[in-house]
Amino acid sequence: MTDHSLFTRAYNLIKAAANTLVVIHANPDGDAIASACLMAEILTLLNKKFSLYCQDQAHAQFDFLPHLEKFTASQERFDFDLIIVLDCGNLKRTGLAQKIANRLPGQQVLEIDHHPKIDDYANLEIRDAAAAATAEILYYFLKANKIKITKNLANCVLTGIMTDTGNFLYPSTSPQTINIASEMLTKGARLPQIMENTWRNKSLASMKAWGKAMSNLEISKKYNFAFTVLRATDMPEDITEEDMEGVSGFLSNLEKTNGLLLLREVPGNKIKGSLRTSRPKVDMARLAQILGGGGHARAAGFTIDGKLEKTASGWRVV
Ligand SMILES: [Mn+2]
Q1: Which candidate among 24, 100, 268, 308 keeps its CA 20 to 30 Å from the CA of 189?
Q2: What is the pLDDT along the chain (318 residues), one digit of tens a residue?
């Protein structure tokens, strides 16, 4: 649990800034987008000037959240006095690492995140690796600063929590997570709308790719570890990152295994790896870090160069 005074200091930074930049990670997920929209709502309530930045486009499916249309992927002027980095794990994932690292002395950085700590760059860092979502930490921020939780803010908190816990399925879901979600419903968050836009929205391309990932599934007996691969040729051409959101979480429902690895070819001759486990003793973040990635103990990922090739003894990265 985060110290109350950190939330007060964070709010003081926000109130003191005239021009703020809110940044989330590339390939943004529901938690990152909802957290940024929540921060944008607070800045709007304070009558502040701000910009929302994400290297990749924030998916239109989230257009029920406030301020989604304000996201931009260009940041030529960097004359902000406060930069708020949300849900990023490490600075590289912002796409603004150079600019943030080489900022002017007067430019403050506030980081709010629930990934394990990797780098140290913020003037004020609020990190809680036990939180189910960055949006869950932001709930405590709202409470600590006595900010009235409006319907818009409640929708943001609940969207972040629902998407980052796989609708309360992942082990990161705590009693507090459920309590917060319940409170958000009483504050006007619209659960059916969130489910409709984040879960019951799978495209045909997405279903076909998920099906292929399921039919390629195998278990390595040596480690009792499930793995599957998706080559570019296994997926419809119009497949998007959004279509693949949640597939590894779903595959990790396989019974009696220690964990799951999904390797998927992505454009640019790269392979994306997703690691999942529900075993408390298995730390996927450490494995992902060895491969240059990161994440949480239960859900982590990495990207490597290469292509997948099937050989007589199994799959190889070439
Ligand atoms: Mn998150």
Answers
A1: 24
A2: 788 999 999 999 999 999 999 999 999 999 999 999 999 999 999 999 999 999 998 888 999 999 999 999 988 889 999 999 999 989 999 999 999 999 999 999 999 999 999 899 999 999 999 999 999 999 999 999 999 999 999 999 999 999 999 999 888 999 999 999 999 999 999 999 999 999 888 899 999 999 999 999 999 999 999 999 999 999 999 899 889 988 999 999 899 999 999 999 999 999 999 999 989 899 999 999 999 999 999 999 999 999 999 999 889 999
In this structure, the strands spanning 299-305 and 308-311 are unpaired
Is-contact 132 35, C-beta < 8 A?
A: no
Which residues have beta carbons under 5 A from ligand 1 (an ion)? 31, 87, 134, 164
37 Cα to the center of ligand 1, angstroms: 14
Cα(18) to centroid of ligand 1, in Å? Answer: 27
Q: Which fold has domain 4-198?
A: inorganic pyrophosphatase (n-terminal core) (3.90.1640)
Q: Check: CATH 3.10.310.30 for 204-317?
A: yes
Q: Between helices 151-164 and 134-144, what is the axis angle to 10°?
A: 150
